[in-house]
Give the backbone structure.
Amino acid sequence: MNLRQLMLAGESQTLEFKTSFDKAVVESLVAFANARGGTVLVGVTDAGGIKGVTLGKETLNEWLGQIKSATSPALIPDISACTEQDQTVVVIHISEFPVKPVNTKGRYYKRVASSNHQMSSGEIADLYMQSLQLSWDAYPAGSHTLDALSLPKINRFISQVNENGRFTLESDGLAALEKLNYITSDHPTWAAMLLFAKEPIRHHVHIGRFKTPDMIIDDRQFTDTLFEVVEQSMKFIVSYISVAFEFDGSLRRKERFGYPLPAIREALLNAVIHRSYTDGSDIQIKIFDDQISIFSPGIFYGGVSVADIQKDNYRSSLRNKLVAEGFYLTGNIEKYGSGFIRIRKALRAYPEVKFEVSEFAGGVMVTFTQLQGASVAGQVTGQVTGQVTGQVTHEIACLVGVMHGDMSRQELQTALALKSRENFDKRYLKPAIAQGLLQLSIPDKPTSRLQKYRLTPTGKILCLQQQETQP
């Protein structure tokens, strides 16, 4: 564009207006160099009006020398003077710098919309590794040795990779990890520690069920290796999402949860895979009656903006390349950079759910909000009434009524004042499980001595109904 077109376009991600040459001009050039390049027009007001500047014979060379000496690595922009409306305007253009980040006097800047912002230490480190095409999780994990890795977790990973078919790994666990660069110089990488450590690194997922912003009903903190923490977190979230059952004349019922579970899982995976693990903050998940929010430390990586991810052709940039590859090889994610596309696709069947994304407090916040006036919990309760409660016996209703959290068989019998195990199994426990009101805490080992029982989402709805009908 010519000078007039630039001024009419207004300040933007790649264009800045300055009335005079000062340190703010240098800061803008640094911000542009750390992004995708940009242009500063000196002699133009913020509103795009021409004020002009006075130049001496060596002024442009002096400005160029000041820019070069005030930046590291040294920036050498294109600089030229133009005449517009009998006034002199200086055009200073800098391209994206190949080795980032660039600083001025020890300060690092990034361009956000039409303004410059000083970068945090985490953003500086991210930009440096991105510039060199490095990934933090590919570095050796401090003083940790290979003994810190769990062979059962590694073998389970190898089995999942081979079953998924995207890659083939030999059965030798450590050799397989070395092939995938999870082991380097006989030491585990940070990715290996995040995925396979015997003692998980303390990066928490903190989940709370809230009735109001200051009234918490339930609270969990999960600290585990990443594959496991995703499953644990997802189970907890689902346990607090209401569900309706629809019958279409066939023997099988259809479930419709209050939120699209694939979208919730995708948002959770994004938070776990793409968070900044150099930030000690927790992933925070808050579940309200009509809203679920997920906060992940670390803003979008690689210059991707909130506006970019709203488009289906946004460019993916991976902060944790080896972690992402592990989830890709096991089939947990389909392909890099498609998470938000899949979330939008899953939401098409849920027009009553609003999805929002924002950068907030140094991280990314995604929010699912139910738009209808009444909460889905209330709507689902009405839908289930008459379909389920008519099949519930007095014994099952009593069992559901005494449930609170995970309870063992003995705790349930004691709460019901029942002595006969056979009577308890036949009239209470088994029918409740068969009707989908109770579930096992260890479903893979139904006879485990550690086995406990908990309410399913349907069971919770029935429990809520009973509470509402009590005087």
Remarks:
- The radius of gyration is 29 Å.
- The first strand starts at residue 15 and ends at 18.
- The domain at 385-469 is CATH 1.10.10.10 (Arc Repressor Mutant, subunit A).
- The chain has three domains: 3-119, 120-373, 385-469.
